[in-house]
Structures are given as C-alpha cells and as structure tokens.
Amino acid sequence: SPWRVLLPLLQWTGLAPHVEMMSVKELDGMMTRAGFEIIETGIFPASPPARFIVARKI
Question: How far apart are CA 35 and CA 10, in angstroms?
Fold first, then answer.
C-alpha cells in the first residue's frame, strides 16, 4: 500500500496523526479482549476495503 510509505512523511510534517495498522484477526482479538462480543462483521465496499463491526459489550 502506498500509505505505508507516505504516512510516516505526512506524520513527520504534522499533516497526519498517528495511525496503527493491524490485521483483521488482531482487531477482532482486541475487541474480544476488551469485553465485546462480535455479532457481525463485513467489508463494505470491497474496494477500497472498509471493515465494519457490529459488537456489544458483555
């Protein structure tokens, strides 16, 4: 992804905030460990991908 190269430069110049890149598995694990039950997930639209999660606090 071109963002992986461009993002540090934008952050250094103050034009972009800190951003954390993670896999779908890592994100789901973080939500579960934080006490959420994942009810449904999806990627809409397929291009560019955007992850949506429906969860509830347990």
Answer: 34
DSSP string over the chain: -HHHHHHHHHHHTTSS-------HHHHHHHHHHTTEEEEEEEESSTTTT-EEEEEEE-
Label residue 35 left, alpha or beta by phi (over 0 means left) and psi (-120 to 50 means alpha).
Answer: left
Number of C-beta neighbours around residue 28 at 10 A: 17
Enter the pTM of the model: 0.67
Instruction: Tokens for 26, please give them.
Output: 């890592």
pLDDT single digits (tens) 4-23: 889 899 999 999 999 888 89
Answer yes or no: are the C-beta atoms of 29 and 35 closer than 8 Å.
no
CA distance 32 to 47: 26
